[in-house]
Amino acid sequence: MYTSGLLFIGTNEIIIIVVLALLLFGGKKIPELMRGLGRGVKEFKEGQKDGPDAENNPTNTANNDTVNNQR
């Protein structure tokens, strides 16, 4: 039975991937990319916690105030 090749990534392959990422993006850009990824994951989790009908939910007063002020 064939299993995914990603299960067998070793130390050498990880080092090669890190070096390639440094060459492609540079040392200053990688922390910015990771920070943006972290913010995206955080917003995604908050969106899941709020639920799909969070816009129409009257308990979310911050969004309701903004919506009411825009009308």
UniProtKB/TrEMBL annotation:
The positions making up the signal sequence are: none
- Keywords in UniProt for this one? Cell membrane, Membrane, Protein transport, Translocation, Transmembrane, Transmembrane helix, Transport
Coiled-coil ranges (or none): none
In terms of Pfam families, this protein maps to: TatA_B_E
Compartments annotated for it: namely: Cell membrane
Cite the InterPro entries for this sequence. TatA/B/E, TatA/E
The way this protein sits in the membrane is described as:
Single-pass membrane protein
Lineage: superkingdom? Bacteria
Annotated region described as Disordered, given as residue ranges = 44-71
- Where does it primarily localize? membrane
> What is this protein for, i.e. what is its function?
Part of the twin-arginine translocation (Tat) system that transports large folded proteins containing a characteristic twin-arginine motif in their signal peptide across membranes. TatA could form the protein-conducting channel of the Tat system.
What PANTHER family does its record include?
A: SEC-INDEPENDENT PROTEIN TRANSLOCASE PROTEIN TATA
The record describes its quaternary structure and partners as: Forms a complex with TatC.
Specify the protein name.
Sec-independent protein translocase protein TatA
Question: From what organism does this protein derive?
Answer: Sphingobacterium hotanense
